[in-house]
Amino acid sequence: AQSVSQHNHHVILSEAASLELGCNYSYGGTVNLFWYVQYPGQHLQLLLKYFSGDPLVKGIKGFEAEFIKSKFSFNLRKPSVQWSDTAEYFCAVIMGGTSYGKLTFGQGTILTVHP
Amino acid sequence: GAVVSQHPSRVICKSGTSVKIECRSLDFQATTMFWYRQFPKQSLMLMATSNEGSKATYEQGVEKDKFLINHASLTLSTLTVTSAHPEDSSFYICSARAGASNQPQHFGDGTRLSIL
Q: How many whole angstroms separate alpha carbon B17 and alpha carbon B37?
């Protein structure tokens, strides 16, 4: 079955540490890839997206993600996290050929950043 | 821009009651709206996809007679949970998208439904 997997359920970092959150999907065709963030008490917000072209995508708030097609991965990175990055992060994928472009979400990763 | 309003944010009601949840795109026209359900400590699970003026497409295992979806205009979709029971208690989230199928979805704040 087509699925999206996020490897870490909960990541705890200190401020200024580097961040990498893993995301893998199981689908061999064309994909559109997204990372969403949900801050406490707020709705899901788009961090960044990949459709085509340069596999290294830069998003808001200093986040970036790299699409590695051979590894079916779209990992999220940030060189230096801040306390305000504390949130839950969701990887989501549109798998080509799916009607209406529906998103399949990963399980989410809770990031806690200590000041 | 791209604001999606979902109402109500919380509902507590008795078993057997029908509950309607509204999802509105405030500053764009949403050709497609999506309804998700999120269980505690789990990811969002798509329930159904609706296009304005068309019948909703339900995901496998989602009862269409239980979860009625109406997408009557380009800015409004409603989800009605009919004859709700305690097992329907969950967090329901809508999203809306304008244009092409690979465009991002914009999410509402969600509705916490508790059935007593």
A: 19
Cβ atoms A112, A11 nearer than 8 A: yes
Per the CB < 8 Å rule, is A101 touching B46?
A: no
Residue A61 CA from chain centroid, whole number? 13
Record: contact B49-A100, CB cut-off 8 A: yes
Nearest to B97 by CA among B107, B85, B87: B107
CA-nearest residue of chain A to B41?
Answer: A107
Q: What is the pLDDT along chain B (116 residues), one digit of tens a residue?
A: 689 999 999 999 999 999 999 999 999 999 899 999 988 777 889 999 998 888 899 999 999 999 999 988 999 999 999 999 999 999 999 999 987 777 788 999 999 999 99
Q: Indicate whether A4 pLDDT > 90.
A: yes
Q: From the candidates B50, B107, B111, which should be mutated to test the interface with A, based on the most A CB atoms within 10 A?
A: B107
Q: From the CA of B43, how many Å to the nearest CA of chain A?
A: 4
How many CB atoms sit inside 10 A of residue B34's CB? 26
Look up tokens 């917000």; give the residue: A45
At B13, list the tokens: 């009601």
Other CB atoms within 10 Å distance of the CB of residue A39 = 13
- Residues of chain A contacting residue B111, judged by C-beta atoms under 8 Å apart: none
Chain A to chain B Cβ contacts (< 8 Å): 52
Which 3-state string (H, E, C) describes B77-115? EEEEECCCCHHHCEEEEEEEECCCCCCCCEECCCEEEEE
